[in-house]
Specification:
Blueprint (H helix, E strand, L loop, with lengths): L2 E6 L14 H17 L4 E4 L12 H10 L4 E8 L5 H14 L4 E6 L9 H4 L10 H16 L5 E2 L2 H4 L4 E2 L12 E5 L2 H10 L2 E4 L2 E2 L7 H19 L7 E9 L3 H7 L7 E5 L2 E5 L3 E3 L1 H9 L2 H5 L2 E6 L5 H14 L11
Parallel strand pairs: 1-2, 1-14, 2-3, 3-4, 4-7, 7-8, 8-10, 10-13, 10-14
Antiparallel strand pairs: 5-6, 9-12, 11-12
Helix pairs in contact: 1-2, 1-12, 2-3, 3-5, 7-8
């Protein structure tokens, strides 16, 4: 059975129509929406992470709060930019949030995406070593973070304090968290690398490559390459794969005014120095959306679907949107509400 959760980009701005006018608004409403999603039987509450922008940034206080207010749904990120992270401090924060949620944390991480800040990670104290790129640095941070949450000894103890010399791990430790790390992949090649590293695959609403085929077919190819590479690597556990989609049911005239009446098309544009293919938004009557989503081959291939929400429209609107999808659209892809 499919897992379905929402993904919030966490925008806030004091503009007409916005229900999230401040950072406080967006964080408190994110918690409330997670509670509402759990009551609807959805499986997850995920949050995007951006820096130097009016969006959600440091995720762990929010994840811990969501974990404390809910009891069943997965909580996670999509994704944390590892260029900005102190891997050991992040390991402590992640373990704490996972323990508060009793093992429900699902962390999406990546090498980052184009952003408003020019080399913003350098302001956080992270500068790529000579001869390496920011992507290399992100992967190095991810490697150290994953070693830390897996319990690796990282520093020598002081015999004057411990009476012996041993290697110490970061604390606390959260059992099982190491298997719940996802890499946000934008290409087929990085999907294969993700599998080789033993991480789950998180694929978004865009791919930073284009071969001329529809987005869902290109994403399906990425998923199949990931699973083949996973099998070749010989990992014992089954991997997880998520894809993200924007799915908006049109229920009244206000929805129609905000979002239009019908689904769009894939878009191809330039991103990060190359061509990128952006998946279409699904917009329309619920019965039409059910047919369209059921025909999306990447959605069918993935075990998890993250639905992006227009978070600035507030908790009530987004709870209504998710409820309509749960009742009329998601059953078409094999999803059933959890209890």
């Amino acid at each position: 059975m499919k897992n379905v959760g929402f993904l919030s980009f966490g925008h806030y701005q004091a503009v007409p129509g916005s229900q999230t006018r401040t950072a406080s608004d967006v964080m408190l409403q994110s918690i409330d929406l997670a509670v509402a999603a759990e009551e609807l039987g959805l499986d997850g509450a995920y949050f995007r992470v951006h820096h130097f922008a009016r969006q959600l940034a440091s995720p762990f206080p929010l994840l811990a709060a969501v974990g404390a207010r809910t009891s069943r749904i997965e909580i996670g990120t999509g994704v944390i930019d590892m260029r900005y992270e102190n891997p050991l401090y992040m390991a402590e924060d992640a373990a704490a949030a996972d323990l508060i949620s009793e093992g429900r944390l699902q962390l999406g991480i990546s090498r980052g995406s184009p952003e408003t800040a020019l080399r913003g990670y350098e302001a956080f104290g992270h500068v790529p070593a000579e001869g390496t790129s920011d992507a290399d640095m992100a992967r190095a941070h991810a490697e150290l973070f994953r070693a830390a949450i897996a319990g690796a000894g990282l520093v020598e103890s002081d015999p004057r304090m411990t009476g012996r010399s041993v290697t110490l791990p970061v604390m606390p430790q959260a059992p099982g968290l190491a298997d719940r790390i996802w890499w946000g992949s934008g290409t087929r090649a990085t999907a294969e690398w993700t599998a080789q590293q033993g991480m789950n695959l998180m694929s978004s609403t865009l791919l930073t490559e284009d071969t001329g085929v529809p987005f869902d077919q290109l994403q399906l190819e990425q998923i199949e390459l990931f699973r083949s590479a996973w099998a070749a690597a010989g990992w014992e556990r089954e991997p997880r794969v998520s894809v993200s989609r924007s799915v908006i049911p049109v229920l009244d005239a206000q929805d129609r005014a905000w979002f239009g009446e019908r689904s769009g098309e894939d878009q191809v544009g330039h991103l990060d120095g190359g061509l990128a293919r952006f998946g279409k938004s699904y917009v329309g009557e619920p019965d039409v959306l059910a047919e369209e989503l059921a025909a999306d081959v990447a959605v069918q291939a993935a075990d998890s679907l993250l639905l992006t929400v227009p978070n600035q429209l507030g908790v009530d609107y987004n709870a209504r949107l998710l409820s309509a999808l749960a009742d009329h659209v998601l059953p078409a892809i094999g999803w059933k509400p959890r209890t």
